[in-house]
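Is this the right way to post structure tokens for a design question? Let me know if I should format differently. Anyway, here goes:
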């Protein structure tokens, strides 16, 4: 089975990330995040976002998202999110686990973008004692369906949430792809996002995600919270270094731009050379294709790993390591036999 397009998690580490990891292995460094590599990586994150923030590096996006949400909602409250968001569909109740009961309220919207009318309707729901009221909003950029929110779209969603006094979280597992597509990272803090998860794994790093707290009050005793959750590494430099290498070299966005371009090339081939149709606009590094089950099974039988998603379409994900030749090979396989 070939996993070229199964997920951007199936690719190895980008050279810039791997080189930085090797450099971090030389000599001795202070433990538990007090090392120079971690400090430098945190500073580059702040520079990239043009914001003062507390930054910590954790082992996974699931932990980062869940701990972030537990900062914004009490156990008897809930978080509003798109119904297809990773926190709702792929984290096995982790937000509730880390939040000691925090709930999730799924909202509709095309291509993973929350529908503004649905959000306002949820915000207008009366608070009663028999269900968890919303206390925060979770946004995904780029979305699970590869859509990229514009700054104005985010503002329209965030403003009514902030008017209620609620918190805002952003899942940025593929934030690099959104940035490469033109999204201005410096707007995130100015929009009122309280805590961001800045992705490293899907950008070509190791397994690291950066927990970025723009609301620095959220960082009160955060190290105790992370330690209790098993998210403090004794050798934090090995978490921070791959992301440091990507940020220092410009490869964090550069590789994402390449992945986006490969997705665009694949989408063009699907439209021009097959009878299949695209299920969603291709704005980042993922391509969703409407295809019958027999066509999907044929690709699987030929060794192409690709997954049928929640909406029934088949997902293909391009990564930093996707080549034009591999895109052409997949496109040929998709067109063959039609």
């Amino acid at each position: 089975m070939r996993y070229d397009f199964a997920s951007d998690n199936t690719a190895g580490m980008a050279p810039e990330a791997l080189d930085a990891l090797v450099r971090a292995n030389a000599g001795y460094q202070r433990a538990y995040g007090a090392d120079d590599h971690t400090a430098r990586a945190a500073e580059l994150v702040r520079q990239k976002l043009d914001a003062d923030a507390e930054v910590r590096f954790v082992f996974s996006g699931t932990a980062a998202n869940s701990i972030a949400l537990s900062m914004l909602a009490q156990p008897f409250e809930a978080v509003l999110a798109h119904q297809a968001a990773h926190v709702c569909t792929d984290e096995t109740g982790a937000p509730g686990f880390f939040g000691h009961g925090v709930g999730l309220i799924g909202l509709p919207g095309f291509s993973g973008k929350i529908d503004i009318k649905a959000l306002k309707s949820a915000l207008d729901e009366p608070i009663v004692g028999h269900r968890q009221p919303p206390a925060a909003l979770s946004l995904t950029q780029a979305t699970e369906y590869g859509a990229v929110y514009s700054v104005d779209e985010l503002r329209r969603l965030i403003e009514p949430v902030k008017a209620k006094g609620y918190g805002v979280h952003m899942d940025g597992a593929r934030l690099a792809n959104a940035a490469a597509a033109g999204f201005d990272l410096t707007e995130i803090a100015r929009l009122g996002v309280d805590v961001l998860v800045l992705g490293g794994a899907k950008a070509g790093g190791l397994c690291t995600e950066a927990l970025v707290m723009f609301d620095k009050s959220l960082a009160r005793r955060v190290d105790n919270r992370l330690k209790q959750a098993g998210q403090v590494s004794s050798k934090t430099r090995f978490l921070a270094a791959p992301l440091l290498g990507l940020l220092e070299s410009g490869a964090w966005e550069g590789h994402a731009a390449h992945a986006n371009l490969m997705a665009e090339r694949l989408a063009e081939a699907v439209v021009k050379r097959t009878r299949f149709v695209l299920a969603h606009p291709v704005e980042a590094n993922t391509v969703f294709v409407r295809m019958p089950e027999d066509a999907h099974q044929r690709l699987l039988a030929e060794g192409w790993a690709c997954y049928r998603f929640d909406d029934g379409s088949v997902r293909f994900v391009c990564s930093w390591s996707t080549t034009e030749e591999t895109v052409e090979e997949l496109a040929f396989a998709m067109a063959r036999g039609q």
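Format looks fine. Someone answered above. Worth noting: The CA atoms of residues 307 and 314 lie 5 Å apart. The chain has two domains: 15-249, 251-335.
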